[in-house]
Write a structure and sequence with these properties.
two-stranded antiparallel sheet, alpha/beta, eight-stranded parallel sheet, 11 helices
Length: 320
Amino acid sequence: MRDAEPVIEPADRADRVLITDVLLRDGFQIEPAVVPTADKVRLAHGLLDAGLTSLEIGSFVHPDKVPQMADTDRLVAELRPGESATLHTLVLNERGARRAVAAGARAVRLVVSASDGHSRANAGAPTHAAVDRLAAAVDVLGGAGVPVEATIATAFLCPFDGETSPDRVVELARRLAGFGIRVLHLADTIGAASPWHVNRTVSAVRDALPQLPLGLHLHNTYGMASANAWEALRLGIRRFDAAVGGIGGCPFAPGAAGNIATDDLVNLCHHAGFATGVDPDRLVAVRDEVRTLLGRRLDSALAAVPAAPVPPRVREGRTV
């Protein structure tokens, strides 16, 4: 495994996009068969070799609910890329935080749903109660010196409650900001948002918390993920989650399909003149390995064609 590039915060480089590949967590958590740990480790090495500097490798949730994530502690132990890459794990409560610390996790994301319906399905409690539980998790992580980010699920729409009010997202973002999080990610959990939803909610959160770095976690259920990413780029967002091949989904969100594909997002960014640090050819090799492992066609647009129709080029100016 070659050394990955040092992580460059997008806030310091307006021409660079930081992509966190979530294949090992969001990608595999929805698969009917549990992917062996050795395969996950090999794929993680491939993603790092392709130039990604940020991966989401698992979640510390109850193994009976999400058996695909039962090996997260082993992944944390086996994947030690040093300071050149960030390996994120997810927690929902204090118990998960204690497991993360015990495993040696060095980057944690808290997750809470903006909608009560999804929060009950995902965390077993309505939103405000779930946030209250996160306070204890923050204390555990802070005491261990583990940096914390946060993700707001169903930030745009919910499969149970419908549209999510931007005011509710702002209220939740304020509470999470009070925990001292470093970055806030807004998730289109069911892939039903449009660029209008992205503009409305991102603008509301940014107006309320202008100093808080924002990222997006996009799904592609209705084919709008690339359009939403383009709108986010236009708004100045430079952090995105994606999964190579476009696989993934939430087991507690009926109808949610795969993530925006890392390969498609890298292609979009490069054609728009943004740097990602990702080598598309090496990424294709990882995507092909995932396809072989799962034994099916993947959902990314580029998975259906031999190559991008027009090679990206260095541009003097961006179009967004």
